[in-house]
Amino acid sequence: MDILNKIREYREEEQKLTWRGTFAEYLEMVKERPHIAQTAHSRVYNMIKDAGVEEVDDKKEFKFFSDQMYGIEDSIEKLVEEYFHSAAKRLDVRKRILLLMGPVSGGKSTLVAMLKRGLEQYSRTDNGAVYAIAGCPMHEDPLHLIPHHLRDSFYEEYGIKIEGNLSPLNMMRVEKEYGGRIEDVMVERVFFSEDKRVGIGTFSPSDPKSQDIADLTGSIDFSTIAEYGSESDPRAYRFDGELNKANRGLMEFQEMLKCDEKFLWHLLSLTQEGNFKAGRFALISADELIVAHTNESEYKAFISNKKNEALHSRIIVMKVPYNLKVSEEERIYKKMIKESDLSHVHIAPHALKIAAIFTILTRLSVPKKAGVDLIKKMKLYNGEMIEGYNAQDVEELKKEDPDEGMTGIDPRYVINRISSAIIRKQLTSISALDVLRSIKEGLESHASISKEDKERYMDFISIARREYDDIAKKEVQKAFVYSYDESAKTLMDNYLDNVEAYCNKNKLQDPLTGEEMSPDEKLMRSIEEQIGISENAKKAFREEILIRISAYARKGKKFDYNSHERLREAIQKKLFADLKDIVKITTSTKTPDESQLKKVNEVIARLIDEHGYNSVSANELLRYVGSLLNR
Ligand SMILES: Nc1ncnc2c1ncn2[C@@H]1O[C@H](COP(=O)(O)OP(=O)(O)OP(=O)(O)O)[C@@H](O)[C@H]1O
Ligand SMILES: [Mg+2]
């Protein structure tokens, strides 16, 4: 019943937030809380700011975006500061259409969707509250009711500049319904909602021949002309175009540059002059943020056309490039997988990271800086420490190519390849190798990638593969030596017992049977050989160790395997050699003995419990590392 409670709570909250009163009462509120009369641009900026800003090393991270948009903080900072912030201050950029330009699947639509969902939420808060003339289809700003000749005195009293004219419809309503008494005009609080078409609009171009400008600016309602007697009676007009509905908020203009010119001109007059023409009326004032998006090639075609010059100067272009950090790319995939129907599939550790390494490589431009290759650049961008380089170098690398991140493989491609591998092979578990293989197969049949790019990309797959080999080996080693200290200690104690017996020409006692045995030459040599101690040198080495032990004993210090550097090295190497043998067992036909089997199972259990594998992927990893070690 939880959900029913929530539905009820939501409704109650909405009722609590509703407000209705006269214009006179509204003005009292404005006096106390002038921000309720802010412009659309200012509201968007405050919404972003109110969500929180974190400053890290001179850079601003806007929380509003950071829980869904990853790795493009620089572009977002530019967008917020250069567009939203300036527009909020009523600077001239407000009068231009905001055009987001970026490569496919680079997050443009996601960014706009966040603004829309954000505004819906924000309009329900105190800081983001919006009020409008009650019953107006365009949710007109109540301050438009103040006649022009009084606006200067209004500014003196309230400190608020009013822009825009009362719409023809409301002008008529003031006369007919309120007898000209503007102070009695009813005002109400409105809540933005794209579904209900309040304050949020979307326009996407369809066939240019059939598309009607009415989609943007509304149209005559012929059924009511008889009632009102004339086409120029505003009551006979339906103010239901996207521009009308998005008034006070935001309108998204999808694929703007695919649109017919006559549509663009409407937008231009709206952004430039703050008004647009509808039907046979005087210009209609509107206050809204217009966000459009496009890709680079479309944009280039658009600006190369002389005819578009005037339009061009009225657009402000903001780049939304791809993310260039491996770790952030991994987060993008995780998010997309969570949102998709793949979320039930086991994705082996590192699979997404390896895919991300490949993807980022395709997006980077070749560094000019001496000593930096593509792989180093990738790691530096990812915030990894590389000796001899610092944050300054990273900034310099970024400045080398302002167009970096505008090309390469997009995140959706990778997700598609992952899902196609899963579906085709009916996998319930997918590893880094499966992902790379699927990406590679996809590239081979990819029609829109040039031959040179394909070759480059194949190289990147090999690089990613090598990175994976390293990671896989380390991962198995880590799981193997987790009881490292203990194994090392046991091995050393064993060795020292034998060395002592050897030097003193004693026998050892078997701990189980109590039988006497000679020192275990094979064991001692297997350790000593690890650090290159020859048959001739073994005696001196063993004696030296004994001397060290007694020196420690005299000082009352405990001798452990860290007390003798070369011995420690020998023990570690011996353990790793054992690891190799055990891992190799998993790929050879030899049946492992009991202790080996036990160790293999321990490693697998460790991989599953601590490193996020399942039994399929853990076994696969061991087999793979085994084959690497066999090479
Ligand atoms: N930097 C990023 N951070 C988080 N998610 C991202 C990022 N870039 C892309 N995505 C994800 O990739 C997917 C595609 O993004 P979206 O549809 O917003 O791209 P687009 O730029 O509008 O693409 P198109 O040009 O194809 O319309 C979305 O799931 C989005 O969340
Ligand atoms: Mg899109």
Characterization of this structure:
The chain is an alpha/beta fold. It has a five-stranded parallel sheet. The chain has a three-stranded antiparallel sheet with strand order 1-6-5. The longest helix has 30 residues, at 451-480. The structure holds adenosine-5'-triphosphate and magnesium ion. The site of adenosine-5'-triphosphate (ATP) has 18 residues, from helix 6, helix 15 and helix 19.
Shape: elongated
Termini gap: 61 Å
The secondary structure category is alpha/beta
Q: Kindly state the mean pLDDT as a whole number? A: 89
Strand content: 5-15%
- Ligands and ions found: adenosine-5'-triphosphate, magnesium ion
Strand order of the largest sheet: 7-10-13-4-14
Please count the helical segments: 27
| Overall helicity | 40-55%
Main sheet, how many strands, which sense, barrel? 5 strands, parallel
- Note the quaternary state here: single chain
Radius of gyration: 36 Å
pLDDT below 50 for ≥5 consecutive residues: which ranges?
none
- The tally of strands reads 18
Summarize the structure.
By secondary structure, this protein is of the alpha/beta class. It is built from 27 helices and 18 strands.
List the helices and strands and how they pair.
Elements: H1 2-17, E1 20-22, H2 23-32, H3 40-50, E2 53-56, E3 59-62, H4 63-66, H5 73-88, E4 97-101, H6 108-122, E5 130-133, H7 151-158, H8 168-178, E6 186-190, E7 200-203, H9 214-217, E8 219-220, H10 222-228, E9 237-238, H11 242-245, E10 250-253, H12 261-273, E11 275-276, E12 284-285, E13 289-294, H13 296-304, H14 309-312, E14 315-319, H15 326-339, E15 346-347, H16 351-363, H17 374-381, H18 391-400, H19 411-425, E16 429-430, H20 432-444, H21 451-480, H22 484-503, E17 508-509, E18 516-517, H23 521-528, H24 538-554, H25 565-587, H26 594-611, H27 615-630
Parallel strand pairs: 4-13, 4-14, 7-10, 10-13, 15-16
Antiparallel strand pairs: 1-6, 2-3, 5-6, 8-9, 11-12, 17-18
